[in-house]
Amino acid sequence: MIARWQRILLLFILLTMAAWLVWQWPQSPMRAVLGALLPLCLYLMVMAVEFVLMHITNRADAAPRARWLQVLAAWWAEVWVALMVFCWRQPFRHQSLPDWLPAQPTGKRGVVLVHGFMCNRGLWLPWFARLQGAGHAYVAVNLEPVMGSIDDYADIIEEAVARVTAATGLAPVLLCHSMGGLAVRAWLRAHQADARVHRVLTLGTPHGGTWLGRFSRAVNGRQMSLAGEWVGALQKAEPAGRAALFTCWYSNCDNIVFPASTASLPGADNRFVEGVAHVQMAFDAGVMSACLEEIGC
Fold first, then answer.
1. Cβ count near 19 (within 10 Å)
2. Residue 1: per-residue pLDDT
3. pLDDT digits (tens, 9 = 90+) for 105-140
4. How far apart are CA 271 and CA 243, in angstroms?
């Protein structure tokens, strides 16, 4: 579903840009080019506003505050990473590589990959070859309905965990980006599945909600409001010791989940990453290497 929406949106933007160029070029080539570039300028501006709000909000956070040069570098990196993810991998390449469940167990632990808000399994494409090359079976889920309740994703994750466990004979590692970490916590609550998971790795997950959640009109977006009712109820329902299953990466340049410390989880192995943006975190070389080490690569 999200791939279809993103393809339609991208096609609409490109057709609008082309129509403007054709209409305005005979009258003023400069006006034609400047108008056609307006969607890109708006994208850069919205992204910049996110980083400014993040940097201001993080003033009161316990995490080390980023320097402005770090913020600028993270903004530029996120601009390109997000374009690649949302304009190519997710709309056009999300089914290009299938899940890998070998017919014979490799003796290695498998992985369930869980994406975040407004994403699909295409987010994880750069991970697939590395996991398969190291002999780790994997299933990357699509969380739908796209704007539904996070609680509705528990059965999708349950099915993926069952498939990976059946293929390997071992409890899997769950690798989660952003909202995906909350979906896994909702799955653990719904199925009391602590004994069926080896480790949960979260990248930029708003465990305590995020400041930007207040602006969402989607059900799952509102559930991620900072210190909101849903995240509070989730934490209260969790038994003592569950957080010890988690390793949580968080950053002082996360432009979606802030204040920065909201991506940490009390009782978990919380790992601070300096100067890395939200989507960028899923592909940061240091974070990837650390996750692959935890998985067993």
1. 11
2. 86
3. 899 999 999 999 999 999 999 999 999 999 999 999
4. 14
Domain definitions of the chain by residue range: 111-295
Structure tokens at 52: 């400014």
Beta-ladder partners of 290 = none
Q: Distance from CA of residue 122 to its chain's centroid?
A: 11
Can you say whether residue 172 is alpha, beta or left, with left for phi > 0 and alpha for psi between -120 and 50 degrees? beta
250, 237 Cβ separation under 8 angstroms: no
| Helix, strand, or coil (residue 246) | strand
Per-residue pLDDT at 34 exceeds 90:
yes
User: What is the amino acid identity at position 135?
Assistant: G
Structure tokens at 242: 């569950």
Q: What pLDDT is attached to residue 2?
A: 94
Scan for tokens 């609550």, then name that residue: 189
HSE-up of 249 (CA within 13 Å, CB side)? Answer: 29
Cα–Cα distance for residue pair 83/86, rounded to 1 Å: 5
297 has a pLDDT exceeding 90: no
Tell me the C-alpha distance between 12 and 20, whole Å.
12
Superfamily (CATH) of domain 111-295: Alpha/Beta hydrolase fold, catalytic domain (3.40.50.1820)
User: Average pLDDT in the 256-266 region?
Assistant: 98
Backbone φ, ψ for residue 10 (5° rounding): -65, -40
Amino acid (one-letter) located at 37: L
Q: How far apart are CA 63 and CA 260, in angstroms?
A: 6
Strand order in the sheet with 111-114: 138-140, 111-114, 173-177, 199-203, 246-251, 269-273
